Amino acid sequence: MKKGYILALVLALPCSVTAAKENKVISYSSKSRVDQEQFFLIGTQEGSYSVKSWQFDMEKATWDGKGEPKLAIGKAIDKAYNYFNKTESELGVKEVEFRPAFSREGTIIWYYRVTLTTLPYKFNSDEFEIVVLLSGELLEPNGKWS
Questions:
Q1: pTM of this prediction?
Q2: Where does residue 113 fall: left (phi above 0), alpha (psi -120 to 50 degrees), or beta otherwise?
Q3: Cβ neighbour number for residue 51 with a 10 Å cutoff
């Protein structure tokens, strides 16, 4: 029995490693670079989200308001599920926001803030939140508000 369990675990491991490599996660960085732009995206109960232009693909993070965004809402939700390593039977979509963020230089980027919650839905259930840029990159919060 133990051998079967270990074999199943070993076979499942490469899939989860592959899924993790698909999602580039941008962690908060206090590093500064010359001519960088900084975008403050949003502040939530999970913390504040901000990103510097050098941390992600600027060309893929913009949207001109015409047609569909480069990253569809369904793909953003899929990336959130993959990031938290959960399935649709474990977590449900509580909220998805599609918003712009502006830099001081006037550049605009767009992002999704995806909030998932435990199932079955209950008041005050645990929530899982992540920001997905249109480039497909994921952004973690800088930390809890103090």
A1: 0.77
A2: beta
A3: 26
Q: How far apart are CA 38 and CA 114, in angstroms?
A: 21
Alpha helix positions (H), the chain: 2-22, 73-84
* DSSP output for 67-86: SS-SS-HHHHHHHHHHHHT-
Write the pLDDT tens digit of every residue in 65-121: 899 999 999 999 999 999 999 999 999 999 999 999 998 888 899 999 999 999 988
Give the Cα-Cα-Cα angle 75, 29, 65 (nearest 5 degrees). 40
Cα separation, 119 vs 89, in Å, equals 7
| pLDDT tens sequence across 3-30 | 443 434 333 433 333 344 467 888 776 7
Handedness of CA 99, 52, 22, 17 (dihedral sign): negative
CA torsion 91-95-98-104 (nearest 10°) is -100
Give the pLDDT confidence of 72-85 residue by residue, as tens digits.
Answer: 999 999 999 999 99
